[in-house]
Specification:
This protein has helices at residues 12-16, 35-42, and strands spanning 2-3, 23-27, 30-31, 50-57, 60-67. With 68 residues, it is α+β, with helices and mostly antiparallel strands.
Length: 68
């Protein structure tokens, strides 16, 4: 996965409820193993698209809707 180092107000991750320290493990249909996997998955979306992001937060796995 890819750990979120910061969440900026009014950006898609913030609006989806993601927080610093969450670990992104899936974006849309793509599994995220590292930063390159995250960037590859992210490149499939354009402004206005909505998908799901799955993150690990401590012991929980959380699925959130995110709109770019």
């Amino acid at each position: 996965g890819m750990r979120i180092d910061a969440v900026t107000e009014d950006r898609p991750g913030f609006k989806a409820g993601l927080i610093k320290g969450d670990i992104v493990i899936k974006l849309g249909k793509d599994d995220v193993k590292d930063m390159m996997g995250y960037m590859k998955a992210l490149s499939k979306f354009k402004s206005g698209d909505t998908t799901f992001v799955v993150v690990k937060r401590e012991q929980d796995t959380i699925k959130k809707e995110v709109t770019f």
